[in-house]
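Honest question from a wet-lab person: if I give you the sequences of every part of a complex, can you actually get the arrangement of the whole thing, not just the pieces? Trying it with mine:
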Amino acid sequence: MSIGTLARAVLGQKWFPLFGGWYRAVFVDLKKVVDCLPPLPAGSHVLDVGGGDGEMINMILPRYPGVEITMLDLSPRLGSLLSPESRKRVRLLASTSLRDYAQTEHRFPDLVLVSDVIHHVPVEDRCAFLSDLRLVLGGHATTLVVKDLEPGHFRSILSLLADRYISGDRKVSLVSRDSVTALVKATFPSAEVRSTKLFDIDRPNYALVFTIDGLNCR
Ligand SMILES: C[S@@+](CC[C@H](N)C(=O)[O-])C[C@H]1O[C@@H](n2cnc3c(N)ncnc32)[C@H](O)[C@@H]1O
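Yes, you can. This is the full assembly:
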Protein backbone atom coordinates (compact mmCIF):
# COMPACT_ATOMS: atom_id res chain seq x y z
CA MET A 1 0.00 0.00 0.00
CA SER A 2 1.38 3.42 -0.95
CA ILE A 3 1.68 6.24 1.61
CA GLY A 4 -1.00 8.11 -0.36
CA THR A 5 -3.47 5.21 -0.08
CA LEU A 6 -2.69 4.89 3.62
CA ALA A 7 -3.26 8.64 4.16
CA ARG A 8 -6.60 8.35 2.35
CA ALA A 9 -7.65 5.45 4.59
CA VAL A 10 -6.47 7.11 7.81
CA LEU A 11 -7.84 10.59 7.10
CA GLY A 12 -11.15 9.35 5.72
CA GLN A 13 -13.82 11.20 3.76
CA LYS A 14 -13.85 14.11 6.20
CA TRP A 15 -10.19 15.10 6.39
CA PHE A 16 -8.65 13.68 3.21
CA PRO A 17 -10.18 16.31 0.87
CA LEU A 18 -8.80 19.11 3.05
CA PHE A 19 -5.38 17.51 3.40
CA GLY A 20 -5.38 16.56 -0.29
CA GLY A 21 -6.09 20.17 -1.26
CA TRP A 22 -3.13 21.46 0.79
CA TYR A 23 -0.88 18.74 -0.58
CA ARG A 24 -1.90 19.52 -4.15
CA ALA A 25 -1.39 23.26 -3.65
CA VAL A 26 2.34 22.60 -3.11
CA PHE A 27 2.57 21.54 -6.74
CA VAL A 28 -0.10 23.43 -8.67
CA ASP A 29 -2.70 26.16 -8.41
CA LEU A 30 -5.71 24.52 -10.08
CA LYS A 31 -7.50 27.85 -10.43
CA LYS A 32 -4.65 29.08 -12.63
CA VAL A 33 -4.90 25.94 -14.75
CA VAL A 34 -8.61 26.51 -15.30
CA ASP A 35 -7.86 30.17 -16.16
CA CYS A 36 -5.72 28.87 -19.04
CA LEU A 37 -8.33 26.60 -20.59
CA PRO A 38 -9.86 27.75 -23.87
CA PRO A 39 -13.45 29.06 -23.52
CA LEU A 40 -15.98 26.23 -23.29
CA PRO A 41 -19.29 27.06 -24.98
CA ALA A 42 -22.49 25.67 -23.45
CA GLY A 43 -23.25 22.21 -24.79
CA SER A 44 -19.63 21.32 -25.46
CA HIS A 45 -18.45 17.90 -24.41
CA VAL A 46 -15.25 17.65 -22.38
CA LEU A 47 -13.43 14.33 -22.06
CA ASP A 48 -11.24 14.41 -18.96
CA VAL A 49 -8.68 11.64 -19.52
CA GLY A 50 -7.13 10.38 -16.28
CA GLY A 51 -9.52 12.57 -14.32
CA GLY A 52 -8.44 11.19 -10.92
CA ASP A 53 -10.22 12.65 -7.90
CA GLY A 54 -12.03 15.28 -9.94
CA GLU A 55 -10.77 18.41 -8.17
CA MET A 56 -10.19 20.12 -11.52
CA ILE A 57 -13.77 19.37 -12.58
CA ASN A 58 -15.04 20.94 -9.33
CA MET A 59 -13.44 24.17 -10.57
CA ILE A 60 -14.47 23.89 -14.22
CA LEU A 61 -18.19 23.24 -13.73
CA PRO A 62 -19.11 26.39 -11.75
CA ARG A 63 -17.31 28.47 -14.37
CA TYR A 64 -18.79 26.66 -17.37
CA PRO A 65 -22.18 25.41 -16.16
CA GLY A 66 -23.33 24.43 -19.66
CA VAL A 67 -20.60 21.92 -20.46
CA GLU A 68 -21.01 18.15 -20.38
CA ILE A 69 -18.16 16.21 -18.85
CA THR A 70 -17.07 12.61 -19.15
CA MET A 71 -14.22 11.50 -16.89
CA LEU A 72 -12.32 8.32 -17.64
CA ASP A 73 -9.46 6.73 -15.76
CA LEU A 74 -7.58 3.45 -15.71
CA SER A 75 -8.07 3.46 -11.97
CA PRO A 76 -11.23 1.98 -10.44
CA ARG A 77 -11.30 4.97 -8.06
CA LEU A 78 -12.53 7.96 -10.01
CA GLY A 79 -14.17 11.21 -9.02
CA SER A 80 -13.86 10.57 -5.28
CA LEU A 81 -13.50 14.29 -4.48
CA LEU A 82 -16.23 15.53 -6.83
CA SER A 83 -18.65 17.81 -5.01
CA PRO A 84 -22.27 16.55 -4.85
CA GLU A 85 -23.23 19.23 -7.43
CA SER A 86 -20.43 18.20 -9.81
CA ARG A 87 -21.16 14.51 -9.33
CA LYS A 88 -24.69 14.96 -10.69
CA ARG A 89 -23.33 16.43 -13.90
CA VAL A 90 -20.38 14.18 -14.69
CA ARG A 91 -20.32 10.81 -16.39
CA LEU A 92 -17.74 8.55 -14.73
CA LEU A 93 -15.96 5.79 -16.65
CA ALA A 94 -13.69 4.13 -14.10
CA SER A 95 -11.26 1.33 -15.05
CA THR A 96 -11.50 2.56 -18.64
CA SER A 97 -8.72 3.30 -21.14
CA LEU A 98 -8.88 5.55 -24.19
CA ARG A 99 -8.98 2.42 -26.31
CA ASP A 100 -11.98 1.09 -24.34
CA TYR A 101 -13.68 4.44 -24.87
CA ALA A 102 -13.00 4.33 -28.62
CA GLN A 103 -14.50 0.85 -28.84
CA THR A 104 -17.63 1.44 -26.77
CA GLU A 105 -18.54 5.14 -26.84
CA HIS A 106 -19.66 7.14 -29.82
CA ARG A 107 -19.60 10.58 -28.27
CA PHE A 108 -16.87 12.78 -29.74
CA PRO A 109 -15.25 15.29 -27.41
CA ASP A 110 -15.00 19.00 -28.28
CA LEU A 111 -12.20 19.29 -25.75
CA VAL A 112 -9.88 16.62 -24.42
CA LEU A 113 -8.20 17.40 -21.11
CA VAL A 114 -5.08 15.46 -20.20
CA SER A 115 -3.93 16.95 -16.93
CA ASP A 116 -0.95 15.52 -15.08
CA VAL A 117 -1.46 12.19 -16.82
CA ILE A 118 1.28 11.85 -19.44
CA HIS A 119 4.05 11.76 -16.84
CA HIS A 120 2.28 8.70 -15.39
CA VAL A 121 2.14 6.92 -18.76
CA PRO A 122 5.33 4.81 -19.13
CA VAL A 123 7.61 6.39 -21.75
CA GLU A 124 7.34 3.36 -24.04
CA ASP A 125 3.51 3.59 -24.00
CA ARG A 126 3.13 7.29 -24.77
CA CYS A 127 2.88 6.95 -28.57
CA ALA A 128 0.19 4.27 -28.14
CA PHE A 129 -1.67 6.59 -25.73
CA LEU A 130 -1.83 9.27 -28.45
CA SER A 131 -2.78 6.69 -31.10
CA ASP A 132 -5.66 5.61 -28.88
CA LEU A 133 -6.75 9.24 -28.69
CA ARG A 134 -6.81 9.30 -32.48
CA LEU A 135 -9.15 6.27 -32.38
CA VAL A 136 -11.40 8.14 -29.94
CA LEU A 137 -11.61 11.12 -32.28
CA GLY A 138 -12.46 8.96 -35.29
CA GLY A 139 -11.70 11.77 -37.73
CA HIS A 140 -13.44 14.53 -35.73
CA ALA A 141 -11.79 17.82 -34.90
CA THR A 142 -11.06 18.66 -31.27
CA THR A 143 -9.03 20.81 -28.95
CA LEU A 144 -6.51 18.94 -26.83
CA VAL A 145 -5.19 20.51 -23.63
CA VAL A 146 -2.13 18.91 -22.08
CA LYS A 147 -1.20 20.14 -18.60
CA ASP A 148 2.00 18.82 -17.13
CA LEU A 149 5.20 19.85 -15.32
CA GLU A 150 8.40 20.94 -17.03
CA PRO A 151 11.35 18.87 -15.73
CA GLY A 152 14.38 20.52 -14.13
CA HIS A 153 12.68 22.76 -11.57
CA PHE A 154 12.59 22.37 -7.78
CA ARG A 155 8.81 21.86 -7.69
CA SER A 156 8.87 19.33 -10.53
CA ILE A 157 11.55 17.28 -8.77
CA LEU A 158 9.48 17.41 -5.58
CA SER A 159 6.41 16.32 -7.54
CA LEU A 160 8.32 13.44 -9.14
CA LEU A 161 9.49 12.23 -5.72
CA ALA A 162 5.95 12.58 -4.31
CA ASP A 163 4.50 10.58 -7.23
CA ARG A 164 7.13 7.87 -6.76
CA TYR A 165 7.22 7.57 -3.00
CA ILE A 166 3.85 8.90 -1.78
CA SER A 167 1.49 7.97 -4.64
CA GLY A 168 3.61 4.85 -5.27
CA ASP A 169 3.95 5.15 -9.08
CA ARG A 170 7.52 3.98 -9.69
CA LYS A 171 7.26 4.43 -13.48
CA VAL A 172 6.58 8.15 -13.36
CA SER A 173 8.79 10.26 -15.61
CA LEU A 174 8.35 13.97 -16.31
CA VAL A 175 7.73 15.16 -19.85
CA SER A 176 8.83 18.52 -21.24
CA ARG A 177 6.76 20.88 -23.41
CA ASP A 178 8.98 20.02 -26.38
CA SER A 179 8.49 16.27 -25.86
CA VAL A 180 4.70 16.63 -25.55
CA THR A 181 4.62 18.70 -28.73
CA ALA A 182 6.72 16.12 -30.57
CA LEU A 183 4.50 13.27 -29.31
CA VAL A 184 1.27 14.97 -30.37
CA LYS A 185 2.69 16.01 -33.75
CA ALA A 186 3.87 12.45 -34.42
CA THR A 187 0.24 11.31 -34.21
CA PHE A 188 -1.51 14.45 -35.49
CA PRO A 189 1.05 15.94 -37.93
CA SER A 190 -0.88 19.08 -38.80
CA ALA A 191 -1.97 19.89 -35.24
CA GLU A 192 -1.33 23.50 -34.28
CA VAL A 193 0.05 24.17 -30.83
CA ARG A 194 -0.07 27.23 -28.65
CA SER A 195 1.42 27.75 -25.25
CA THR A 196 -0.63 29.32 -22.45
CA LYS A 197 0.42 31.71 -19.69
CA LEU A 198 0.43 28.88 -17.10
CA PHE A 199 4.19 28.43 -17.28
CA ASP A 200 4.68 32.13 -16.52
CA ILE A 201 2.20 32.30 -13.63
CA ASP A 202 2.69 28.88 -11.98
CA ARG A 203 6.05 27.53 -13.10
CA PRO A 204 6.97 24.68 -13.72
CA ASN A 205 3.34 23.83 -14.56
CA TYR A 206 2.51 24.32 -18.20
CA ALA A 207 -0.55 23.90 -20.39
CA LEU A 208 -0.34 23.44 -24.13
CA VAL A 209 -3.38 23.80 -26.35
CA PHE A 210 -3.43 21.75 -29.57
CA THR A 211 -5.93 22.38 -32.32
CA ILE A 212 -6.55 19.08 -34.07
CA ASP A 213 -8.56 19.33 -37.24
CA GLY A 214 -10.71 16.53 -38.61
CA LEU A 215 -8.32 15.75 -41.43
CA ASN A 216 -5.57 15.02 -38.92
CA CYS A 217 -7.38 11.98 -37.71
CA ARG A 218 -8.23 10.23 -40.92
C1 LIG B 1 -1.96 12.78 -11.04
S1 LIG B 1 -3.50 12.09 -11.48
C2 LIG B 1 -4.21 13.49 -12.32
C3 LIG B 1 -5.66 13.65 -11.99
C4 LIG B 1 -6.36 14.82 -12.70
N1 LIG B 1 -6.25 14.74 -14.13
C5 LIG B 1 -5.86 16.14 -12.21
O1 LIG B 1 -5.14 16.85 -12.91
O2 LIG B 1 -6.21 16.48 -11.06
C6 LIG B 1 -3.11 11.00 -12.83
C7 LIG B 1 -4.27 10.10 -13.21
O3 LIG B 1 -4.03 9.56 -14.51
C8 LIG B 1 -4.52 8.23 -14.52
N2 LIG B 1 -3.89 7.55 -15.66
C9 LIG B 1 -2.60 7.21 -15.82
N3 LIG B 1 -2.40 6.62 -17.02
C10 LIG B 1 -3.59 6.63 -17.67
C11 LIG B 1 -4.05 6.18 -18.93
N4 LIG B 1 -3.21 5.58 -19.80
N5 LIG B 1 -5.35 6.32 -19.26
C12 LIG B 1 -6.21 6.89 -18.38
N6 LIG B 1 -5.85 7.34 -17.14
C13 LIG B 1 -4.56 7.22 -16.80
C14 LIG B 1 -4.17 7.70 -13.15
O4 LIG B 1 -4.95 6.58 -12.80
C15 LIG B 1 -4.47 8.93 -12.28
O5 LIG B 1 -5.79 8.94 -11.79
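Two things worth pointing out. The longest strand covers residues 142-149. The two ends are 43 Å apart (CA to CA).
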